[in-house]
Amino acid sequence: MLPHLPLLLRTAILHLLHLSPQSPYLDLKTALIVNVLRVYINHPNPKSISETKDFLNKFPSIKGRIWVSTYSIPVPTSDTQTAIKSLFSTAINALAQDGGVYKGQMPQVSAVEGEWTGYRANAGPESRLPKGLTERELYAELMKEVKGKTTVLYFHGGAYWLMDPVTHRPTTKTLAKVTGGRVFSVRYRLAPENPFPAAVVDGLVAYLGLLYPDQDAFHESIPPNEIVFAGDSAGGNLCLSLLQLILHLHRTGQRQILWNGKMVDIPLPAGIAVNSPWLDVTHSSPSCIKNAPFDYLPEPSLLKAAEAKRPPCGIWPSTPRRSHIYVADELLMHPLVSVVLAKSWEGAPPVYICTGWELLADEDKYIAKKMWEEGVRVRFEEYEGMPHCFGLIFPGLKEARRCFDGWGGFIKSVVEGEGEQGSRFLTIKAGTLEEAERKGEEVSQDKEEVIRRRMEGQLKGERVVGEGVAKL
What we know:
Distance between the termini: 32 Å
Largest sheet: 10 strands, mixed
CATH class of the largest domain: Alpha Beta
GO molecular function, one term: hydrolase activity
Strand order of the largest sheet: 1-2-4-3-5-8-9-10-11-12
InterPro entries: AB_hydrolase_3 (IPR013094), AB_hydrolase_fold (IPR029058), GDXG_lipolytic_enzyme (IPR050300), Lipase_GDXG_HIS_AS (IPR002168), Lipase_GDXG_put_SER_AS (IPR033140)
Strand content: 15-25%
Protein name: Alpha/beta hydrolase fold-domain-containing protein
Family: Belongs to the 'GDXG' lipolytic enzyme family.
Organism: Apiosordaria backusii
């Protein structure tokens, strides 16, 4: 921390004098952490992709009030693998808004591992999992404490190339506690080794594996009206990409698939609940600049400059080369990648979206309003002064506890049929947690054509401001 003492001192002085943008909304400790995180994430001399993955994948042991049971959905039959590849190839081409044909290779359809997570009420902070139990026996112990019928299908964040269900255990444990249910946290394949659509393929396999389990599965068949897709950041993108895929299949009469020898439905889940979802992978929204003082994520120009200094390794740059870690260049604006460009959300189940005053705020607000205009029941919560995924990063904040109450409460309500039935748009005031109601039409003023123009400009090295264009 010694090299960061000047930054810490400057942050503290400005905060105590109420001269920083964060000071009216964050306590000093949180403001210090946000500013230091920003430096670490946007390091002037970044490590290679491989080194960064290795550094962040030092998984802690399991302890505390949590049950964890690792389970793998088996490799589907060869006929199912062919059916899933065909489904994705057809959908990617059908949804392409430029009329182009995707010529990339479809990923293999493989086994999908995940962690069943439950809340262990009678354990202590240092409790370990019982020794000598198999994963199936751990799952049985987990299920003894499940009080409700909610199953959360969870997709972790990490820009599609970082993190793991292990890093998100505190989050999945808390969601299990608030909902009274269980969480299946998916270990989907990561980029750059496995670019789009590998993660979405794994998401679909995980969902079908919950609905139509193998005879040796730990769980019994779970009805779709008891499953909610949830995720944070890139995991929120994955939730909405998977939802958009299923909506497309329903619109085009392709709602069945051959799954391990049987024709089965691909139904909609009970709901979608996403926290700080990343919906525009080009980072073209105005909030990517104007909200930079409140977020630890670096604004696009700084991120681009840092990435240019990243040393090469065995997995990046990729072969063939592409500019984006997650996806081929020609698909950056595809609606299954940048879901902010999805044409329609009509027919979607209820959706919860939470955001802060972060870089991704504008795209989150736009999607919430668009869904509401198209008849989707939406619960939208914007938290004053809060950075990206604040509920996960700063669990001690009362805003974080309120976030999990809203997030988990929504998940439970759409499964159990309780609570509000209409849409709500709220601003949660910093400090007081006062809820200020907003009208849906006031949440975002963005138009689809403007969003598209901004994204096209960003990819050309330009930034669209209003109707004008400025070089980056």
